[in-house]
Specification:
The complex is a heterodimer.
Chain A: E1 3-15, E2 23-35, E3 39-43, H1 50-57, E4 65-70, E5 73-74, E6 84-87, H2 99-109, H3 114-127, H4 143-155, E7 161-165, H5 173-188, E8 192-196, H6 200-206, E9 209-214, E10 217-223, H7 224-231, H8 235-242
Parallel strand pairs in A: 3-8, 3-9, 6-7, 7-8
Antiparallel strand pairs in A: 1-2, 1-4, 4-5, 9-10
Helix pairs in contact in A: 2-3, 3-4
Chain B: H1 2-17, H2 20-37, H3 46-71, H4 73-79, H5 83-87, H6 93-127, H7 132-159, H8 163-180, H9 184-189, H10 195-205, H11 210-214, H12 216-220, H13 228-255
Helix pairs in contact in B: 1-6, 2-3, 2-6, 3-6, 3-7, 3-8, 6-7, 6-13, 7-8, 7-13
Classes of the chains: A alpha/beta, B mainly alpha.
Chain lengths: 247, 259
């Protein structure tokens, strides 16, 4: 399978105001690859460097050294973002727009022709079960609905790679289940999904492979089934063991 | 350009779905209609004062709309985190800034059309005249001047932490230019060095927005039209300032972390 995402020796440092430690290393020489059609779980405790890695992946931050290639193109090139969909954690979309208007706006940024945009909006809104609320202003949406409209915007360009940052965080069990079902359907459609999560149960159910990051370093990586077989315990226990938590 | 127009379209939608403009427009209309309905001292010349007051209210309202609409654009995108999905699309930061600028500027253009139409109707009801070209000259320079204010406020929204502080600083700065900008050189000549040179440098560096502001007199006192070459030169002068502020905004935004 072709490699869709390749992270090569990524190092990200941030300046701090602390004179004793003028630089904080957020990610230390991270190397990973994600293949086409995989659902890849990117795990780690808060502050492990997951969001920083995703931010570099999307061109929001610059890497201190190393590089990230999306479809063989450096993320520094805006063209690399043409084939990806991104759902950030806890985003509140434009309250004064309806879901349909929001998706039209994003479709325009991808230069999708109007007729094709209409078709994709229909498909995306049906997939996230928001077809009935498409003409309603987003400010009237519940948190779960907002998260699903976020998923719809991430799908508007029919992306080959979906990057989801904690897509189920802050949702109730029903909302989590719906988002999980959507990711499952995308997986069945052959999409590549790269997502971070703290929900080990859902990661174990959905993901083909996972990577566990702690203090900016890659601590474990591999197929979920292989990791479980190797450690003889579930993913949550593996996670706790890898990050050095002793019960 | 498609991306820039898409971003501008969202800004325009935001304006007509928020209440700011409607409140200011209704307030201006009510104040002017009350003023116009009373005939103080049976003075037929009172219409000049009403026109002057109406134009002043239009200026204040347009500045409030331009500054408040622009000041919240980028901070709101950051606060609501909509900046992240936006920049994850094939949209450059420069296109985003230009889109925001264009949206706010077009919004101000629409606002001015409404305000000046009302003003024209009010003046015509008393004077039975409709000097369209005079109104056009005043409204056009007013709109171009708002372009400078919008570009300045966009820059401020990246420099200052809170939208309210940015809006206040921009409003005070613009009001100071409108009120005392033209006198700075004369004040400078009465000062000793090095203050004279400093104030003269400030005089030549600030955008002189008082020319469009002075255009109010043209329509208040029914003065003849100003030469179109002068209008064109003043528009170019202000567009140059808007371009400088926009360039600075793009440079600051390129270096800014978005998360």
């Amino acid at each position: 399978m072709p490699t869709i995402l390749a992270i090569q020796n990524l190092r990200v440092e941030f300046p701090t105001r602390d004179r004793r430690q003028p630089v904080k290393v957020a990610v230390k020489n991270l190397t990973l690859s994600v293949n086409a059609g995989e659902v890849f779980g990117f795990l780690g405790p808060n502050g492990a460097g997951k969001t920083t890695t995703m931010n570099v992946m999307l061109g929001f931050n610059n890497a201190t050294s190393g590089d990230i290639l999306l479809f063989g193109t450096s993320v520094r090139q805006p063209i690399a973002r043409q084939r990806i969909g991104y759902l950030p954690e806890m985003t509140y979309y434009y309250k004064f727009l309806t879901a349909e208007e929001l998706l039209h706006f994003y479709a325009r940024l991808f230069r999708i022709p109007r007729a094709e945009a209409e078709r994709r909006i229909d498909v995306a809104l049906k997939l996230v079960e928001l077809d009935h609320a498409r003409k309603r202003l987003i400010k009237t949406y519940s948190k779960g609905m907002q998260q699903r409209v976020g998923l719809a915007q991430a799908l508007i360009n029919n992306p080959d790679l979906l990057i989801l940052d904690e897509p189920t965080s802050g949702l109730d069990p029903l909302g989590r289940m719906k988002v999980r079902q959507i990711i499952q359907r995308l997986k069945e459609e052959g999409k590549t999904v790269f997502f971070s999560s703290h929900e080990m149960g859902e990661v174990e159910t959905i993901c083909d492979r996972v990577a566990i990051l702690h203090e900016g370093e890659l601590r474990a990586e591999g197929r979920v089934s292989d990791l479980i077989a190797k450690h003889q315990c579930n993913l949550e226990q593996i996670f706790l063991r890898v990050i050095g938590y002793q019960n | 350009m498609n991306e820039i127009f898409a971003v501008a379209g969202v800004v325009i939608k935001e304006l007509y779905r928020r209440k700011d403009f409607y409140v200011l427009f209704i307030l201006t209309v009510v104040i002017c209609l009350i003023m116009a309905s009373v005939n103080i001292y049976n003075d037929n010349e009172i219409i000049r004062y009403i026109k002057d007051l109406c134009l002043l209210l239009i200026w204040i309202s347009s500045l409030v709309i331009a500054i408040t609409t622009t000041a919240r654009q980028i901070p709101a995108e950051r606060e609501q985190r909509t900046l992240l999905p936006l920049l994850a699309k094939p949209l450059s930061r420069t296109q985003l800034i230009l889109g925001k600028f264009l949206g706010c500027w077009l919004v101000c253009g629409l606002v001015l059309v409404c305000f000046y139409t009302f003003f024209g109707a009010l003046a015509a009801s008393r004077e039975h005249a409709w000097p369209l070209l005079n109104y056009f000259q005043a409204a056009f320079l007013h709109w171009v001047m708002l372009g400078v204010v919008i570009a300045l406020t966009l820059l401020g929204s990246l420099v200052f932490a809170a939208p309210s502080s940015n809006a206040t600083i921009c409003f005070v700065f613009v009001a100071a230019i409108l009120c005392v900008g033209r006198y700075l050189d004369m004040v400078a000549l009465s000062l000793a060095e090095p203050f004279r040179s400093i104030l003269l440098a400030v005089y030549f560096a600030i955008p002189h927005l008082e020319i469009p502001f002075g255009m109010r007199n043209l329509i208040v006192h029914d003065w003849p039209l100003i030469g179109w070459n002068f209008i064109g030169l003043d528009a170019l002068y202000m567009l140059a300032y808007a371009a400088v502020f926009l360039l600075a905004t793009c440079l600051v935004f390129r270096r800014k972390a978005v998360n």
